[in-house]
Amino acid sequence: MEAALKGYFGYSSFRPYQREIIQKVLDGRDCLVVMATGSGKSICYQIPPLVTKKTAVVVSPLLSLMQDQVMSLKQKGVKSEYLGSTQTNSSAFNEAEKGMFDVLYMTPEKAISLPSRFWNNLQAAGICLLAVDEAHCISEWGHDFRMEYKELHLLRGLLVGVPFVALTATATERVRRDISTSLVLCNPHVVVGSFDRHNLFYGVKSCNRSISFINELVKDVSKRSAVGESTIVYCTTIRETEQVHEALVTAGIKSGIYHGKMGSRAREESHRSFIRDEVRVMVATIAFGMGIDKPDVRCIIHYGCPKSLESYYQESGRCGRDALSSVCWLYYQRSDFTKADFYCADAKNGTQRKAIMDSFMAAQKYCLLATCRRRFLLQYFGEELNSDCGNCDNCTAVKNVRDLSKETFLLLSCIKSCGGRWGLNLPIDVLRGSRAKKIVDNNYDKLQMHGRGKDYSPNWWKALGGLLIAHDYLKETVRDTFRFVSVSPKGVKFLSAADKIDGTPLVLQLTAEMIDLEEHGSSQHKEGGGSNLVPTLESEKFSEDESKLYQMLLNVRMELAQDIGTAPYAICGDQTIRNFAKMRPSTGARLSNIDGVNQHFVSRFSGTFIQNITQLSKELNLPLDNSPLPPPPTINPAVENIAGVPKPVQNNLPGILGDAKVTAWELWQKQEFSFLKIAYFRRAVPIKEQTVIAYILDAAREGCELDWSRFCREVGLTPEIASGIRLAIAKVGSRDKLKPIKEELPENVTYDMIKTFLTIEGRGLSEQIFSNAPASSHASEASGNDNPADGVTADACDANPSAKRGQTDGMVGSAEEPAMKLQKIEEHGVESSGTTSATEESVLELVASRDGVLLDDVVKHFNGSKRESVVEILVSLESEFEIYKKNGKFMIM
């Protein structure tokens, strides 16, 4: 495995969980993998085919995403291809059927429509796995449900004995169960990594979407573009996409645009220009969401509140996938929060509508936070942080706290007097003295607090309302798409304690929106917001000459990429170029030892880079063969040194973990400070010992060496307690939330012990450290009903595999499926060789020209095409977020 990792991908060690997952796949085990974007999920299905010499089939939702991945793999020497409507290689299908590719990508529609003959021939040639990427699309509880993903279980009948691997970056516990059941995963090995993207800075600002605001936004983007950084600006509407793009072009900034009303050729060209660094800025609707595999995007800007927190995490996750410092800004205005009905339009039932509303409300709360944004994001996905992150706008801003008891009393009293039958708007109108018909008809103009809130704007009161919801003084409930705000038990307690308006102090941190409204009278964007967060080479201890060399080598990479028609990042990543600039290797042998350099790179590009490094270093008076950068921390659990022999720490760890966590780890591991001593070290106010422990465990998760024997001893984690925790996890059936596990254990077992145990398990060190503990199966490998994500028990899988995975007679489907349906799949599986008048572009033009069009009307319009061909195009366009369906009609995004 390690040889394939270095030979093809240039890395000397695996990242957390990768080796464990790959080994399970090689053992023939189904896997369910939930890991953050940028954590290396793709390696988990790209290494097995290189080890087994069999094809890995990867189901992916978007053609553009597959094209990026195929291009990148080819530059690494991995034989890969995709099957889809835009494939121009006429021999790709036949070569794929014969197993001539290491990695074969296809959409779910293509996977289901392929004839059984294809799968039989490919399996005869050899299939090592079937991976389902973006697997959250399977679940109706997910934020991006795709009906065609639900049909993938039909392939079980053909691919008997082939392990299925479901991968996603965003899946709650409920979604994970749904994925497992829908794909009929058999006793899957479940891995849930951390959702924390340490290298990303999160920030939110309210805005007014005026021309002046757009001009300030353009200035921010231009600063990043000037230093060669890539930026994606996500807009919620096509009109805003075109408006922002026009402003950038007018300012002389080369930028691409991507939205559903563009022709397919124009979208492809825009996408290609961005990934090849011909333009540094892409302005796009969410149609560009998952469809980009560019690792060096340095900034993501959301121009409007996203439709869900899952969508925001997914889209912001396109940023900094190479682990270098990057920033995510979200600009919103309150009118964004009125789009719930639009997002719920396609809900099939009340359950799905509620899921959409819950996700949308979570995104709104994220916008209105006054506390740590990373902490809120992680809590939403079931992960807890012991302390604030120190890497978001709320953590880094100067704290602005105030006693808001008077204002809180007025708002809570008014909401209570209005009966809790409204949203925030009406009680706020009452406070501001409105005599609207609805207020007069309900006699709310007679209330004591009528007109008592004129000192603040409506938006200020709404911001306070959001703050009080976040602090549980108000309760927001949803019925259908309508929101109702009422006073919570905590709010009732506050009111009862306040005999008069200025009675009970309530000190809260004001949100950025409240501060802006008080200072400027409206939500404004401050010029240069977040620009100081652009990561610089100087901050990473690059000299001025080394920085010049780095920029020159980027130009060399760009020229090579243009010569061979590929993206610069596909040749090698930014971090590899930084290593070149810092180490300046003089020979191919020295260059090949640098992390990120693979055999394919050495054979094709090493001569060019060595020549340029030698020449440019001489011009800049820089010595060659500089001392190597400290290697990254050892990630491979199988070779970790339990005794804790100190190893060099990766030089960008402070950017990943933060200085406080790195310092805590170094003091404990290298200088053998106690937790208590670290808590007081150079601090006027000490932090908690639990915070110190959490810092050190975070460092361990990033691969930092740890003396686990000593750590367990100081935390109090014995083999007996570890055994009890393992049994508690098996009983609870999940390791995502600590409280249920804690409740199953004696009082003397602390949260620190549980966290330590989970970290050790995640590193694969449990057997080595707790060798004296009583034997007990791993929770994620428990058979029967111990694992709730299994969907079915192991016994059921073993007892009747054909019933579980479907029939093995070469037909896609289960034994109970009607023969007619199977025959239909078989007949329509082979693509028609005849030309038709229905194309993606022509169908898009038709939909764009009408205010909604029914399926029958589309089929009738393209009378030269088969109905199923038209349906396939519509499904493809819908999956690309270019059209959507509402009330049975297809409409343009």
UniProtKB/TrEMBL annotation:
<dbReference type="InterPro" id="IPR014001">
    <property type="entry name" value="Helicase_ATP-bd"/>
</dbReference>
<dbReference type="GO" id="GO:0005737">
    <property type="term" value="C:cytoplasm"/>
</dbReference>
<dbReference type="InterPro" id="IPR027417">
    <property type="entry name" value="P-loop_NTPase"/>
</dbReference>
<dbReference type="InterPro" id="IPR004589">
    <property type="entry name" value="DNA_helicase_ATP-dep_RecQ"/>
</dbReference>
<feature type="region of interest" description="Disordered">
    <location>
        <begin position="772"/>
        <end position="813"/>
    </location>
</feature>
<dbReference type="GO" id="GO:0006260">
    <property type="term" value="P:DNA replication"/>
</dbReference>
<dbReference type="InterPro" id="IPR010997">
    <property type="entry name" value="HRDC-like_sf"/>
</dbReference>
<dbReference type="GO" id="GO:0003677">
    <property type="term" value="F:DNA binding"/>
</dbReference>
<keyword id="KW-0539">Nucleus</keyword>
<feature type="compositionally biased region" description="Polar residues">
    <location>
        <begin position="772"/>
        <end position="786"/>
    </location>
</feature>
<keyword id="KW-0347">Helicase</keyword>
<feature type="domain" description="HRDC">
    <location>
        <begin position="543"/>
        <end position="623"/>
    </location>
</feature>
<keyword id="KW-0378">Hydrolase</keyword>
<dbReference type="InterPro" id="IPR044876">
    <property type="entry name" value="HRDC_dom_sf"/>
</dbReference>
<dbReference type="InterPro" id="IPR018982">
    <property type="entry name" value="RQC_domain"/>
</dbReference>
<dbReference type="GO" id="GO:0016887">
    <property type="term" value="F:ATP hydrolysis activity"/>
</dbReference>
<dbReference type="GO" id="GO:0000724">
    <property type="term" value="P:double-strand break repair via homologous recombination"/>
</dbReference>
<feature type="domain" description="Helicase C-terminal">
    <location>
        <begin position="213"/>
        <end position="364"/>
    </location>
</feature>
<keyword id="KW-0238">DNA-binding</keyword>
<dbReference type="GO" id="GO:0043138">
    <property type="term" value="F:3'-5' DNA helicase activity"/>
</dbReference>
<dbReference type="InterPro" id="IPR036388">
    <property type="entry name" value="WH-like_DNA-bd_sf"/>
</dbReference>
<dbReference type="InterPro" id="IPR029491">
    <property type="entry name" value="Helicase_HTH"/>
</dbReference>
<dbReference type="Pfam" id="PF00271">
    <property type="entry name" value="Helicase_C"/>
</dbReference>
<dbReference type="InterPro" id="IPR001650">
    <property type="entry name" value="Helicase_C-like"/>
</dbReference>
<dbReference type="InterPro" id="IPR011545">
    <property type="entry name" value="DEAD/DEAH_box_helicase_dom"/>
</dbReference>
<feature type="domain" description="Helicase ATP-binding">
    <location>
        <begin position="22"/>
        <end position="189"/>
    </location>
</feature>
<dbReference type="Pfam" id="PF00270">
    <property type="entry name" value="DEAD"/>
</dbReference>
<keyword id="KW-0067">ATP-binding</keyword>
<dbReference type="InterPro" id="IPR002121">
    <property type="entry name" value="HRDC_dom"/>
</dbReference>
<keyword id="KW-0413">Isomerase</keyword>
<dbReference type="Pfam" id="PF09382">
    <property type="entry name" value="RQC"/>
</dbReference>
<dbReference type="InterPro" id="IPR036390">
    <property type="entry name" value="WH_DNA-bd_sf"/>
</dbReference>
<comment type="similarity">
    <text>Belongs to the helicase family. RecQ subfamily.</text>
</comment>
<dbReference type="Pfam" id="PF14493">
    <property type="entry name" value="HTH_40"/>
</dbReference>
<dbReference type="GO" id="GO:0009378">
    <property type="term" value="F:four-way junction helicase activity"/>
</dbReference>
<dbReference type="GO" id="GO:0005524">
    <property type="term" value="F:ATP binding"/>
</dbReference>
<protein>
    <recommendedName>
        <fullName>ATP-dependent DNA helicase</fullName>
        <ecNumber>5.6.2.4</ecNumber>
    </recommendedName>
</protein>
<dbReference type="GO" id="GO:0005694">
    <property type="term" value="C:chromosome"/>
</dbReference>
<dbReference type="GO" id="GO:0005634">
    <property type="term" value="C:nucleus"/>
</dbReference>
<dbReference type="Pfam" id="PF16124">
    <property type="entry name" value="RecQ_Zn_bind"/>
</dbReference>
<keyword id="KW-0547">Nucleotide-binding</keyword>
<dbReference type="InterPro" id="IPR032284">
    <property type="entry name" value="RecQ_Zn-bd"/>
</dbReference>
